Amino acid sequence: MSSHPTPPASFSRLSLTGFLTLLLIALMMGANHVAARTAFNHGVDVVTAVTFRSSVTAFVVALILWQQKVSLQLSGRHQKNLLLIGALIAVQSVCLYSSVARLPVALALLAFNTYPLLTAFWARVLYGHRPERAVLLAMPVMLLGLALALDVLGAASGLGAAQQWGQIGAGVAFALAASATFGLALVITQHEAADVDGRLRTFTTMTTVAVLAAVVASTQSGFHLPTATAGWWGLGALTFLYGTAFTIMFTVLPKLGVVGNSAIMNVEPVFALVLAWAVLGQSIALMQLVGALVVVATVMWLGLRRR
User: Fold this and answer.
1) 1 in a structural domain
2) Please, are residues 93 and 239 in contact by the beta-carbon 8 Å criterion?
3) What are 161-219's pLDDT values in tens digits?
4) Range of the domain at 140
5) Residue 9 covered by a domain
6) Exposed/middle/buried for residue 158 (C-beta within 10 Å: 0-12, 13-18, 19+)
7) How confident is the model at residue 157 (pLDDT cuts 50, 70, 90)?
8) How far does the chain reach from its first CA to its final CA, in angstroms?
9) How many CB atoms lie within 10 A of CB 128?
10) Is 9 exposed, middle or buried (0-12, 13-18, 19+ CB in 10 A)?
11) Which of 30, 118, 154, 259 could form a disulfide with 272 if both were Cys (CB 3.0 to 4.6 A apart)?
């Protein structure tokens, strides 16, 4: 899903416009990852994609800050924690795109969508918060669904467990690393930076991600640009889709008053599954589809439950 953390918000009644807006954001986020895989298939590397995407998004959000005259004042505590959050999101972005480059897009997003469990873990470790009963109940269900979706035993592929993990192991590891860093960023945001304006928080995060990614690129072999027209379309599309989704998220959603219902956006892997099938020719077995739906339904239940 999104790579910028937002703290929990209270629930409000969801209008048709709000519901459709949330679905549009989920669609654009899913399409962003399909576009990224297209770019990766034609010469673009992960760091280049993250740099372009984050730089353009930071620029767009900067224009919003300027146009809406948002105060840029930050305390020393906020500056330190926002820098940490930005670094975590940089790691999360690289890890998630690295997973997308290795796994079918929908499966990479499903593995990443375990972040509610890891968010609860970090909240317990860092702040002593006991996980809610709902999270404990959801954990085995989500993990079972993920096991089915990833075909961990190699039953659907017919490869057997060893060969299956030889193919998916690195991609799953990157997705879970993205999930862990995103969960940590969410917890730190909630406890240390929740009172910072969401637009300013997004700008500082995306700027930090862009700078760190550019530094990494400069210390390696530079940016890897597309080697074919399809790659340019992919790079342009992932940048446009990501930036547009974030712009809508922080300008339209607050006015609609539906931020507390943002769990609906966790249908992103479903959109990615359909788009990856249509654009990339990726498909999964029926058993994996069942597992995917279990994961998505569980994450949405966690996000939409009344607190």
Assistant:
1) no
2) no
3) 888 899 999 999 999 999 999 999 999 998 998 888 888 999 999 999 999 999 999 99
4) 16-304
5) no
6) exposed
7) confident
8) 22
9) 7
10) middle
11) 30
Q: How far apart are CA 17 and CA 5, in angstroms?
A: 23
Q: Mean per-residue pLDDT for 54-79? A: 92
Six-digit token string for 136: 């404990």
232-255: per-residue pLDDT in tens?
Answer: 999 999 999 998 988 887 677 666
**In angstroms, rounded to a whole number, what is the distance separating the alpha carbons of residues 77 and 298?**
35
Contact yes or no for 74/196 (Cβ under 8 A): yes
The count of domains in the chain is 1
Within a domain: residue 242? yes
Closest CA to 245 of 217, 267, 265: 265
Query: Chain-centre distance of CA 223, in angstroms?
Result: 23
Residue 231 lies in a domain: yes
Q: Which of the given ranges, 153-162, 169-178, 294-303, has the highest pLDDT on average?
A: 169-178
Residues 115-142: pLDDT tens digits? 888 998 999 999 988 888 888 888 899 8
Q: Are 241 and 37 in contact (CB under 8 A)?
A: no
